[in-house]
Amino acid sequence: MDKKAKIVQASIEVFKEKGIEKTKIADIAQKAGIAHGTFYLYFPSKLSVMPAIAEQIVLQFMNKIEATVSIEDPLQKQLNQLVDAIFQVTEEFRDVSVLIYAGLSTTAHMSQWETIYTPLYDLVASLLETNKNRQLVRETIDPAHTAKLVIGLIESAAEQVYLYAAYNVQNEANQKAELLTFLEHALRP
Amino acid sequence: MDKKAKIVQASIEVFKEKGIEKTKIADIAQKAGIAHGTFYLYFPSKLSVMPAIAEQIVLQFMNKIEATVSIEDPLQKQLNQLVDAIFQVTEEFRDVSVLIYAGLSTTAHMSQWETIYTPLYDLVASLLETNKNRQLVRETIDPAHTAKLVIGLIESAAEQVYLYAAYNVQNEANQKAELLTFLEHALRP
Amino acid sequence: MDKKAKIVQASIEVFKEKGIEKTKIADIAQKAGIAHGTFYLYFPSKLSVMPAIAEQIVLQFMNKIEATVSIEDPLQKQLNQLVDAIFQVTEEFRDVSVLIYAGLSTTAHMSQWETIYTPLYDLVASLLETNKNRQLVRETIDPAHTAKLVIGLIESAAEQVYLYAAYNVQNEANQKAELLTFLEHALRP
Amino acid sequence: MDKKAKIVQASIEVFKEKGIEKTKIADIAQKAGIAHGTFYLYFPSKLSVMPAIAEQIVLQFMNKIEATVSIEDPLQKQLNQLVDAIFQVTEEFRDVSVLIYAGLSTTAHMSQWETIYTPLYDLVASLLETNKNRQLVRETIDPAHTAKLVIGLIESAAEQVYLYAAYNVQNEANQKAELLTFLEHALRP
DNA sequence: AATGAATGAGAATTCATTCAT
DNA sequence: CATGAATGAATTCTCATTCAT
Nucleotides of chain E within 7 Å of a protein C-beta? Predict the structure, then answer.
């Protein structure tokens, strides 16, 4: 792992532990096993690491989706797998994912958000497109826009389960079931 | 307006202007027309104002929804008004709303999120319930869970339009239209 | 107990608990059961309470000495009782007595020290005087100066035992025994 | 001189000038010719410099004693020189020495006191031991305990002269004379 | 490229003190 | 006399950033 990757990894860990506000460059450097000054050779500031972290998370989303969602399956199963993928990654990165919003929002990095999410949007849009061609989803959808709605919907549902409320197995199951029905009705022809 | 409310109001304004990171307690105090020290009589830190701000925003959501959404209207119109309400408030608070995530996430305030949103969830759940009784939405929905999904969906769509991408009128219109269709299909019987 | 006495008492307790540096006027006021502002009706500052506290301690010394030292006893017994008296009070006020030095020294109250100790010096000087007249102590002593030496010697010995070292029963006994022999040799004819 | 020593030296000077209470970290840093922040690389707080200062003073005591007290001299002369040494150093550090009590007492540094004084106690104990072997002091003394008594006695006498009362040449001479006679009687065979 | 001691601007926070009630 | 909310001057302390090695 090169130093840049080490820094990104260390940042994720320290942000998880302490939160962004309380994290010092020194903490990141120490966790990464480098000197303070070295940090600046790779990133100009604490928050500038955020986009790299966000990319990591989006990459995780994509890997998981590509690994589990099969275009050959019936719509319901695909949606099930898509939801599972996003729920799993959100759970894994529960501590950082919200920080990402913070990190990107408190600076001028806001615009990078769209760029970072684009590959994920594209991936889901293409899934929708294919399903649309196979007439598994209604003809009236616009894959690009609907992809964003679908991802936003699933992410927010996952965040409600894993971040904003005390975790509860039953609640997770109910929320997921309701979400799936909701999605199916929204998309099916 | 008592001093606590004044501080909350001033915080919203200053956060909008400068962002959280750049905001000094001194700025808030000045805007609120009080001395630095007085701030600490009401809040222990900058971030501890966040939950109060979040409550304000949720209150705005509720006021707007109650003012515009009429249970007497057909579903499509109700959804249209609900979406408009949430889009409008999100736009108005575009600069603070994401910062709220930051503020609530960096501290131990996470759990307050659910509490703060509860009245809004309840309001929308009750709307769904009534429509369900009138058979305007499908019988299979669970109003409580679906309310969360609906709010999460609309909020995330609004954030995508107003926060994460360069604002674009056409895009806003398309996203809204697609969102409405999506919602109608998801909810209708 | 009037309010002034209450404040002095409260100050002693708070200084014991927190030390001078960390004690706020607010702490003293709270412990005394009065409002912040009321403190200022009786004392102009935190440190100005010090002389009153010092007077308290000196009063304790005098009471104990007067209660236990009998001029009728042989010198050895008198010294024994004098040492015990000073050791006891020093132990009781172990936490404040050093703070007194601090409190009196950090301000312009230094000169009050002599005044506060004068009655104690006088008391011991008069003891020495009487013993000198009875030829129990050597004729060459000057009661006034020797009183100061005696008190300084016993106090410093007591402080070494109770304040500056980990307390140890055996050590206390040895130090006292050595001190008594030392004093006897220094004073006897 | 390394930076730590520079800070200790600067602290002594500034404390002498202004007293502890009125001394700002900034003052010490400036006198030491370093930046504010650098201070914190060496000491966590203003008071934590105290033990290092106390060590300095004890070192001065020892240097002065070793330079002036000759074991070859008769007891009276040795005591004279010992008293002079301690009086001189106490006078020189009159403004800091009492502050040291304050500094060490307000914190958890109390126990360090014994450690810091140990070399001085040992030095005087060894002087007593030698004199005892030469039968210049009475056989019944315990050098270790008596060393503490002797130092405590001389120090307190010096403090009475230089710190707690208005300085007065005649008084100083009388006190010293009385002290010497007192010591001789206490120690001689 | 890497280091980490030194810097010092800048902010948070405290708390003695006031004064209208 | 007593109160305690409000004040804001004053200081501590932090930590991003630099730069000589």
Answer: 1-20
User: What is the model's pLDDT at position D184?
Assistant: 97
- In whole angstroms, give the CA distance from residue C61 to residue D121: 28
Give the position of tokens 């040494």: D85
DSSP state of D189: -
H or E segment and range at residue D90: helix D75-92
The span from the CA of C45 to the CA of D100, in Å, is 22
Residue with tokens 């009063």: C59
- CATH number for the domain that contains residue C62: 1.10.357.10
Percent of chain D with pLDDT over 70: 94
Q: Could you give the maximum distance between any two Cα atoms of chain A, in Å?
A: 58
Structural domain for A25, as ranges: 3-44
- How high is the pLDDT of residue C92? 87
HEC letters along D43-60: CCCCHHHHHHHHHHHHHH
The D residues from 5 to 64 touching C (CB cutoff 8 Å) are 19-21, 47
Same domain, D124 and D165: yes
**Phi-psi map region of D109: left, alpha, beta (phi>0 left; psi -120 to 50 alpha):** alpha
What's the mean pLDDT in C101-125?
A: 78
Secondary-structure breakdown of chain D: helix, strand, coil percentages, each rounded to the nearest 5:
80, 0, 20
Of B21, B113, B153, the CB nearest to A153: B153
**Contact assessment for residue A187 and residue B153, using Cβ atoms and an 8 Å cutoff:** no
Q: Check if C168 contacts D (Cβ < 8 Å).
A: no
Q: How far is CA B187 from the centre of its chain?
A: 22
Alpha carbon A149 to chain centroid distance?
A: 14
Residues A31-57, mean pLDDT to the nearest whole number: 92
Closest residue in chain D to residue C157, using alpha carbons only: D149
Q: Does D97 contact C at CB distance below 8 Å?
A: no
Question: Who contacts B118 (Cβ-Cβ below 8 Å, separation ≥6)?
Answer: none
Name the packing angle between helices A50-68 and A75-92 (round to 10°): 150
B: neighbours with 3+ CB pairs under 8 Å? A
Are D123 and D105 found together in one domain? yes
Q: Percentages helix, strand, coil for chain A, rounded to the nearest 5?
A: 80, 0, 20
Residues written for chain D: 189
d(CA B29, CA B39) in angstroms, rounded, equals 6
B100 and B140 inside one domain: yes
Q: Judge if B60 and B122 occupy the same domain.
A: yes
Which position has the higher pLDDT, D42 or B21?
A: D42
Q: Is B174:A145 a contact under the CB 8 Å cutoff?
A: yes
